[in-house]
Amino acid sequence: MNTKAGRLYEFGPFRLDVSEHRLLHGPDVVPLGPKVFETLLVLIEHSGHVLQKNELMMTLWPDSFVEESSLTQNISLLRKALSEAGEQQFIETVPKLGYRFVAPVKVLEVNGDKPIEEERNEQPSRSETPARRLMLSSGATLLLLTIVIVVGAVYLWRTRTRPSFTSGERVRSLAVLPLKPLASNGTDEFLGLGMADALIVKLSNFEQLNVRPTSSVIKYAGHEFDSRSAGTDLGVDAVLDGTIQHVGDRVRVTIMLLNVRDGKTLWSGHFDERFTDIFTLQDSLSEKLASVLQLQLATGKQAQLNKHFTENAEAYSDYAMGLYFWNKRSKEGLTKAIEYFQKATAADHNYALAYAMLADTYCLTIFYDSDVSPSSEEVIRKAEDAVVRASQLDDTLAEAHSAMGLLKTYENDFARAQQSYRRAIELNPNSAIAHYRYAFNLLSGLEVEGAIDEMQRAQELDPISLPINTTLAGCLLYTGQYDEAIKYSKLALEVDPQFGLARFNLAEAYEWKGLHHEATAEYLKLSEQQGYRLYGKLGLAFVYARSGRQDEARRLIGEVKRQFTSEEAFFDLPLQIASTYAVLGAKDEAFTWLERAVETWRARRYDLRYSRPLNTLKDDPRYEQILRRHELTKSLVSELSKPNLP
């Protein structure tokens, strides 16, 4: 990077010393990593102007391919480092474009008043005559031509010896579908999913390729499906599909790589190995695919690609079964997942990935099992034992760090949780679940812009995820980006028209845009949907209150209150009642229900801070009192919505 070596920049209470490569806050040095420092310097040098994300990435990483998540993480770390300056904003996110440094910047010269630009344009030395400059220029040109010829020859040789793809055909996104069992043996179904998951993990090491997560493809396990249609639904360039058969001590796999755009087969292969050598089969498949797709590993990733998490076929089979039930995301499914992950670790005491997933499953049971108390110490202890064991065996597992982040969030240790999520993303930048959980962590810390950045990255990696699209829409509502909130709500509803939370977000976005007719239509649909009827009625009351129909609004609120019990409704309904009263202008009733929401852990800090319907309450001293009390009683249940948890 071309830095201004002798220059100092001052902004707010900070001073950036380029020559010493450090950021000062008064007399104190603010610790910044090298790339984070460079990111800050580039933003400051273009202060007041929007820098597009791809422009920033090309400037910061000119000689390597990196994912957008690397830039997002740098921006997030910068915002964290600058946060001690109070509420002052330094970096603005420009949706869909990039970032702008918005704080006033003062430039200081360390070498007197003479601008650096003049010092760098000095006359050439006497020894550097025009003739010598011409000779140097000619020599450089000759060298450049030689390099071009050599590089061109190497390129032609490589393209003749490797599969050729035009720029339009190059596969940039891929879905690995669960392999179909040829036999009626039920275990082959789980083995087919396990094989797909192993390939997803291996191929995710290639940062040039966006691989859909296992959670997106599991719905195809055990079902007949058309490969090309599945690829279209998943929004990918290509799908990897095939069959698997476990006969005696052998495993037979037939595989096909299909171009979704035109239905052409890009590659196919047949593999036959002993079941105990299934891991060799996975290596062969991933290496062949990397060759066919012309993928290159980032530095230091080769060990990850060749890693075998276990050499025990029985343990692997149990792990595949556990993975299947883990993806069910139900109380019953998680109970079965724990059983199989425990069997996997019993068969192989060094199976780090199985321990990591066991820990993750214990954490998820807290949200999906209403019988588990928020203060249940036994569940926490089991999760902690499993994740510590996983980390001791292999500290490079993104899954272990993601599970640790969830555990620490539950324990209200948000700083440690954030550290764990960042490490998970560093180890696997293509982990949608790590980005998604990290977004919630940032949101819990009231860093809504950073949360949106992380949620958008998760959505790019898993574009058909119901919880990701729905939660992203909710975050965009907080920042007034109603058109974008509508877009992601509709994406979620395309996947599942019965997903009530997405429809609720869609209706609210319509209402804030002044589209009362559209909002009313969506709330009416909710009022007829099992499990969301009370939300639909409250939404209609919300529309009526904003359009001056006070009596009708109060009538609907009264109906909801008469029907409401904690068992019948989702956890945040008291907060929604408070919000509707607030829009109605009934402050006393609003505060009564707001108190109830906080006391029963049915309010999230970011809702209290950012929810627009509550704005009319924020100038009342009671509101700040509730916020302060909520800081003392906050819990994971108050920070994460059960229906949205991945």
Explain what you see.
- By secondary structure, this protein is α+β, with helices and mostly antiparallel strands.
- It has 5 domains: 7-118, Orthogonal Bundle (Arc Repressor Mutant, subunit A), CATH 1.10.10; 136-165; 173-296, ABC-type transport auxiliary lipoprotein component (Rossmann fold); 313-440, Tetratricopeptide repeat domain (Serine Threonine Protein Phosphatase 5, Tetratricopeptide repeat); 471-644, Tetratricopeptide repeat domain (Serine Threonine Protein Phosphatase 5, Tetratricopeptide repeat).
- It is built from 29 helices and 14 strands.
- Strands 9, 10, 11, 12, 13 and 14 form a 6-stranded mixed β-sheet that branches. Strands 4-3-2-1-8 form a 5-stranded antiparallel β-sheet, with helices on one face. Strands 5-7-6 form a 3-stranded antiparallel β-sheet.
- A hairpin with a 2-residue loop joins strand 1 (7-11) and strand 2 (14-17).
- Helix 6 (186-203) packs across helix 9 (278-292).
